[in-house]
Write a structure and sequence with these properties.
This protein is an alpha+beta fold. The protein has 15 helices and 11 strands.
């Protein structure tokens, strides 16, 4: 395995420096340690990550020995939580997943190597590993090429990977909208075919994903992709979709001043019993309900 050419990653973020220290300590103790997932993706896009996830060949007991303050948040999954001044940092052992028995969670998780750990991740742009000590990226899934070409590609067989966890259907739309990505054709075909399965995702998880889309920088594109993929028709079969309506939603979203008001913008023009019926299985917060005039 040869580290790939690495674009310059510069961050003055305090959390970045603290995460680098964690990786350095793991490596000093004889283990591998990398930033992984969304934080690497965000750094390569020139964004400041909300948090830093670290992947390592150290087991939870090793992490506990190196960092006495670490908490065994998910020992069953090889995950430890390490508190820092900037917030909690997740340190996870390389692992591979068993079959997904409920379209959400794997039946079992085994410790594995870096290659297996990369294959279990959802999209290629989320499966990049960065060594902040040597400043090298490890890319086993051609994620850098997809990131540079702004392509969203699921890892492995698209139909199988979406069917493992139906939430990925919504996550795909969110990532494509947020980062202005175009879908790899097989990924898009699988998404459209399996879009009806999104009803199997719990209302809480569905609501959170749509909430993140509406709060994102390209909410209008997210709305369009929800419709083109068939997810809109499954989630809100009685909610009309027209070009004029999308324009109104986008304009309303531009004027929102609070996170709660994004739903008011999304449901612009809908009120009363019709709105109550549409929102019936949304798990909204009290401020969000209040912004819609719902009890």
């Amino acid at each position: 395995m040869t580290p790939s050419t690495t674009p310059t990653i510069v961050s003055t973020d305090k959390a970045f420096a603290e995460a680098v220290d964690i990786v350095a300590a793991l490596q000093k103790a004889g283990f591998k340690g990398y930033f992984v997932g969304g934080c690497v993706r965000d750094l390569l896009f020139g964004l400041t990550p909300q948090d830093y996830d670290i992947a390592t060949d150290a087991k939870p007991e090793d992490v506990q020995r190196i960092f006495p303050r670490a908490r065994g948040f998910g020992k069953r999954f090889g995950v430890s939580i390490l508190p820092t001044k900037s917030g909690d940092c997740e340190v996870a052992a390389f692992r591979e997943d068993g079959f997904y028995y409920d379209h959400r969670r794997p039946a079992w998780v085994n410790y594995a190597g870096l290659a297996e750990d990369a294959q279990r991740r959802d999209f290629t742009i989320n499966a990049l590993y960065y060594d902040p000590v040597s400043e090298q990226i490890i890319d086993l899934v051609d994620g850098q090429a997809d990131l540079q070409e702004r392509i969203l590609r699921i890892i492995g067989n698209p139909f199988e990977r979406f069917d493992e966890d139906w939430l990925r259907l919504l996550r795909a739309v969110r990532f494509a909208a947020r980062f202005a990505l175009r879908f790899e054709p097989r990924t898009w075909d699988a998404l459209r075919t399996l879009s009806p399965m999104v009803v199997g995702v719990t209302p809480e998880r569905r609501t959170e994903e749509v909430r993140l889309m509406l709060q994102g920088p390209n909410a209008g594109r997210a709305v369009g992709l929800l419709y083109k993929s068939g997810l809109w028709q499954t989630l809100w079969p009685n909610l009309p979709f027209t070009t004029h309506r999308v324009r109104r939603i986008v304009e309303s979203l531009k004027k929102t001043s609070t996170k709660a008001s994004v739903w008011k913008a999304f449901f612009t023009g809908i009120s009363g019993d019709e709105l109550a019926d549409i929102c019936n299985d949304l798990r909204l917060t009290r401020p969000e309900k209040k912004s819609l005039g719902l009890k």
